Amino acid sequence: MKLIYTDCLVVGAGLAGLRVAIAAKERGHDTLVLSLIPAKRSHSAAAQGGMQASLGNTVKGLGDNEDVHFQDTVKGSDWGCDQTVARMFAHCAPKAVRELANWGVPWTRVTKGPREVVVNAERITIEEAEAAHGLINARDFGGTKKWRTCYTADGTGHSLLYAVDNKAISLGIPVHERVEALSIIHDGERCHGVVARCLITGELRAYIGKSTTIATGGYGRIYEVSTNAIICEGIGQALALETGVATLGNMEAVQFHPTAIVPVGILTTEGCRGDGGLLRDKDGYRFMPDYEPEKKELASRDVVSRRMTEHMRKGKGVDSPYGPHLWLDITLLGRKHIETNLREVKEICENFLGIDPAKDWIPVRPTQHYSMGGIRTTPTGQSPQLKGLFAVGEAACWDMHGFNRLGGNSLAETVVGGMIIGKYVADFCDDNDLVLDTGLAKRYVDKVRAEIDELIEGKGTENPWELKYAMQRVMMDYVGIFRNGPELDEAVKQLKALLARSVNLGVSCKKRHANPELVEALRVRRMLKVALTVACGAAARTESRGAHAREDFPQRNDKDWLCRTLASWPDANALEPKLSYEPLDVMQMELPPGYRGYGADNAIAHPDTAKREAEIAELLAALGPNASREARQQALMPFELPESLTPANERLADRLNGLVNTETTGSPSMPNIAGDDNS
């Protein structure tokens, strides 16, 4: 048995995993990252449109702050998120953007003076302040009150991943590439590392760490068509599930992005609509104002996806060999804008569709895109059940997104969550010793080796590719944008049958080293368990909340369902997860449940909502009208952060106000607004 030990072990080399590794390394801890692929090939690179942070630099972002970002995030989540986590995130996002600028991210910058933008299908001119010249720019995104999505054209994820990976390289953080974790090593109370297999040699290794952080991304590839990279198969979530101890949270919360191209499902960024693009039907008619007259194309993602699906169900979709679709029209933005700010979209359209989006409409329809569910953690990123097991990014249910994620909040969560949780991981490594229980590690290595032996030497006849495709079809057909009881019951039935069949998996290629068929066989049984947690959670939740839309239960039911779904796997022979629920305490919320702003307000109220609203009114009245924004927030819902992240964020408006104040008192100095701090 090959044993490798470290202080901070990170599984996954995307933005979230690398950011945790950097935080631990900067505190002096030995750090090691495992990755299926080279770090710069991680799915984080696919993020196009940008990351949200309330900088308030642009004229369309003036007045933005942590409060507005927090409120947008909570409403976007359909009140399913952990509001403490949403507060932590909104406070730290500006710090992360500025840190990334110092690490080399070439953020698109504000240019002073007039510029043309498209808003609600009209070309208008806005005037950017001279004081904002050179500061980080922002574009509009769905579900936000202010323009706050910071970007580098439409290659933001690519820029961020390269900068963060280069930072990790500069710190000497090793990344073991082409290595796949297959089991978590634990004693029922504490996680001690993982068993991983080298995809090239087939060697099994026990990686032992003081802390283990799962940062393996989402589980989109349990669906047949997804915008996710093919490596996003939910294996990190499955490993936690298979411990029988750690729980997964809100696995039924699966987001469909409105504008993936047909038929391949590659994403066209929300930046297309944020910059002024329109959705049209088969007649060329712009239909979104009929459904959402206020936000139109920039309603929240789950809302736009449902409206598009409803419109196609009315026969307004464009017929194609791949089923109906709608059109995304960005021609009105003009060729210069497209080739400057949406150049990746242009290349995707040219290479995969053979069209020029500066003059042709883009065929799109909603496609599986993001997993709000994941490994359930506390606000510090640690599993409540398994000490030493952390999760971050899309692999985690931290739970910042609740039942729907706003565009731009995912890319932000990777680096903001990684920055915050990385400090808590470093704290854990400070306070806990490395436990080298070689007997425990050997038991888990032997268990994985026995699984591989059975696949290669056993008499199983089930084809892993066939089981995987059948699972993906079930999820696509029955656990999609719109859900109902009979279809969800059918999904659970068929998935359980597939999981039962997976006991008899076999492989035709008997090689133990580089063997794609063996890799698939090792993954598919774990993927089926993840798919079952999604389907079972969706079948049990008899309400509609965010991206979970039940046609047979169309109301959001705060009275009975204002809770987080928790899923655990009872034992190795079980065919479905055990579900339990974690209530969300309305009396601790800064923003009690209310009207989200889309469609009819048909929510069933929680009995504590009115009581909490009255309590909030009393608390604010007691503070008086002159209380600061920060004092009001702390009175309603105090939250904690690592000390280095607690200072207030400075914005352009604050600096200009400071200038006015210093001029009034006769101080001669003027702050450098345009300049060198990369703000």
Automatic annotation (TrEMBL):
Domain Fumarate reductase/succinate dehydrogenase flavoprotein-like C-terminal: 470-598
EC number: 1.3.5.1
Domain FAD-dependent oxidoreductase 2 FAD-binding as annotated: residue spans: 7-411
Amino acid composition bias (Polar residues), ranges on this chain: 659-670
Coiled coil residues, start to end: none
Start and end residues of each stretch annotated as Disordered: 659-679
Subcellular locations according to the entry: Cell inner membrane
Co-factor requirement: FAD
NCBIfam families membership: PRK08626.1 (NF006383), sdhA_frdA_Gneg (TIGR01812)
Protein name: succinate dehydrogenase
Lineage of the species this protein comes from: Bacteria, Pseudomonadati, Pseudomonadota, Gammaproteobacteria, Alteromonadales
